[in-house]
Amino acid sequence: MSAVIVSLRVSATPQEAFDVFTQEIGAWWKPNGLFQITPRGDGVLRFEPGEGGRLVTDLPNGKSFEIGRISVWTPGERLAFTWRQGAFAADQTTYVDVRFEPVGDETRVTVEHRGWDAIPQEHVARHGFPLAVFQMRQGEHWRALLASVGVRIDERRL
């Protein structure tokens, strides 16, 4: 299974980085027109904490869409969950694994998003891109998202 892997260091402890990632996703998540979660856009994301909890987006029309289910919830260390876009068939799922590792006074946040090789190239979520091109673009999106996590952490310290 191929994967997109992106890492970024943030000025926080692993616990602080985990808390911002999970508790404040609605504040740091930045929509990207190429990777919309639903045809109506991304809405406001939120985690329901703990293993078995959900990642949900609340849409402006009052509806909610379940993006995925949490399989690992280890505060300050690791978060793993399934990921589905609104256009996915019932049997189509990708997987996100996020690790929070101390590096000196900082934390390296690493996102691994895998399973895109099981989503056909012609699927609307892949935009017809060959896998390598799609994964490059997906990596750019996750890099921007992690940068947004870093900004959110910095804002909390002001």
What do you see in this structure?
It is a single chain. The protein has about 160 residues and is an alpha+beta fold. The chain is about 25% helix and about 35% strand. The protein has one domain (about 5-155): Alpha-D-Glucose-1,6-Bisphosphate, Chain A, domain 4, CATH 3.30.530.20. It contains three helices and seven strands, in the order E-H-H-E-E-E-E-E-E-H. The protein has a seven-stranded antiparallel beta sheet with strand order 1-7-6-5-4-3-2. Helix 1 crosses helix 3 (about 130-155).
Helices and strands, with pairings:
Elements: E1 3-10, H1 14-23, H2 25-28, E2 44-47, E3 54-58, E4 64-74, E5 78-83, E6 94-103, E7 106-114, H3 131-157
Antiparallel strand pairs: 1-7, 2-3, 3-4, 4-5, 5-6, 6-7
Helix pairs in contact: 1-3
Short description:
This protein has helices at residues 14-23, 25-28, 131-157; strands at residues 3-10, 44-47, 54-58, 64-74, 78-83, 94-103, 106-114. It has three helices and seven strands; from the N terminus they run βααββββββα.
Total strand segments: 7
CATH class bucket: Alpha Beta
Instruction: Tally the helices.
Output: 3
CATH architecture assignment: 2-Layer Sandwich
Structural domain tally = 1
Strand order of the largest sheet: 1-7-6-5-4-3-2
Report the end-to-end length measured between terminal Cα atoms.
41 Å
The radius of gyration computed from the alpha-carbon positions, rounded to a whole number of angstroms, is 15 Å
The residue ranges in which pLDDT falls below 50 over 5 or more consecutive positions are: none
- Characterize the main sheet: 7 strands, antiparallel
> What is the chain-wise order of helices and strands?
EHHEEEEEEH
Secondary structure: helix percent: 25-40%
Mass-distribution shape: globular
**Which range does the strand content fall in?**
25-35%
CATH-defined superfamily: START domain
The CATH topology corresponds to: Alpha-D-Glucose-1,6-Bisphosphate, Chain A, domain 4
Q: Which structural category do the helix and sheet elements fall into?
A: alpha+beta
